[in-house]
Automatic annotation (TrEMBL):
Biased composition, class Basic residues, residue ranges: 62-72
DUF4817 domain mapped to chain residues: 6-61
Lineage: Eukaryota, Metazoa, Ecdysozoa, Arthropoda, Hexapoda
Organism: Cryptotermes secundus
Residues covered by region (Disordered): 59-78
GO terms of molecular function: nucleic acid binding
Superkingdom of origin: Eukaryota
Gene Ontology CC annotation, any one: nucleus
Localization of this protein: Nucleus
The protein's name in its UniProt record: DUF4817 domain-containing protein
Amino acid sequence: MEQWNVQERVVAVRAYYRNGDSLVEALREFRRHFNLAPRVHTPSKHAIQTWVQNFEETGSVGKRKSSGRPRSARTPENVEAVQASVLRSPHRSVRKVAAALTVSRRSVQRILHELKFNPYKLQLVPELKPNDHLFSRQFCEAIMNKIDENPDFIENLWMSDEAHFHLNGYVNKQNCWYWAQENPAVLHQRPLHIPKVTVWCAVSARRVIGPYFFEDIARNTVTVTSEHYVTMLEMFLAARIHSVPNTDIKNTWFQQDGATAHTARVSMAAVRRLFSNHVISGNGDIAWPPRSPDLSVCDFYLWGYLKSVVYNTRPTTLAELRRRITEEIAAIQPDTLLRAMRNFQDRLAECIRQDGHHLHDVIFKL
């Protein structure tokens, strides 16, 4: 390991705190401070993290000397104080707990782990309106009845939706933690609207139709209106769904949510020209319950999965973002789609058990 003097360590630690605990930004400021060329070596992220931990626990950026004695910060009094603070305010960050108790952040983290407390991320879900749970339960019961009547119902179902992708990645939930000894499954209700590229897909147990990008002739993203939606149905979906092998369009069901662009008269007329009386939607043959993303395979699987892989390569242009979305959709395997659609059936049963409220125990894993 390279040796860095005290002045260099102090600069790195100060940069770390000044830039919101960001190791990347700390390294950038370190280069600027010492006017280092791009190829000149800098401290590793691990080294800076070690200096920060040493500073928080000892007040020095130098190497810690082992005393062989138990650390005084984790005394029974501090353990009791940390536990009481977290139980009183479980949403409070480790840093704020440490500041309030005048204990280092590292010590607070270790105390929490010794107490078997773990940080849990909040789920962001829509706020349910009165009677929403009733509509959800009625929908689930109607679909379960269809499955009882026809075991191939799930294989003949297409679920569709739009989503927004943007160049800066998706919602940052790294600071949404809840400290507890057991997962409280806390749901945080919050609307999210961060559009850049608007993508439409339809998912079945066999394949994904899409992506379709809602954009004008200059490739600028446009709002999904009924006019644009009908264009997509007639010019894109119609040709592709008829080309899917072994598709019996007479027995095919199509799901869309209750967005105004989907349920307008002109939109519903276009949908019915394709799927007749097999439409799951607002104003459809089976009513799709409002504010129920935990029942839509696009929401509980497709969009989250795509955003987790598309942004791995950090696309920097909209053209690159579109290309990455197209590539990752094409790479989805049929067995994954089959498991996702079967998970939808599990969610129906769980929704009935939850009397139409938000689901807590059904998790889809790749």
